[in-house]
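[Primary structure, fold]
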Amino acid sequence: MSAYMIALVNVTDPEQFKKYAAAAGPATAKYGGKYLARGGETSLFEGEMPAERLVVIEFASREAAEIWYNSPEYQAAKKLREGAATGTFMAVDGA
């Protein structure tokens, strides 16, 4: 069953965040992730926007998302994000 990694992100250092994004993309592809949304324009219909950026990545399973997140490649990219953004990251099984 497909699973989706969802990240709600607030960027605090745009230049450093670009370095993170450049490293995260190849790591994501290596582990079978496919970006479905990557911080594009958002329409809010109810409630309050929890973050300025929304990222959705599709994986073959939640286990695959966890393997990607814990991989050496993504962990190296994640270090670039530290101090450049704050956020919430979660994985959810598809329907």
Q: What stands out?
A: The mean pLDDT is 97. The chain is about 40% helix and 30% strand. Residues 3-42+51-93 form a domain with the Alpha-Beta Plaits fold (CATH 3.30.70.100). The CA atoms of residues 42 and 48 lie 12 Å apart.
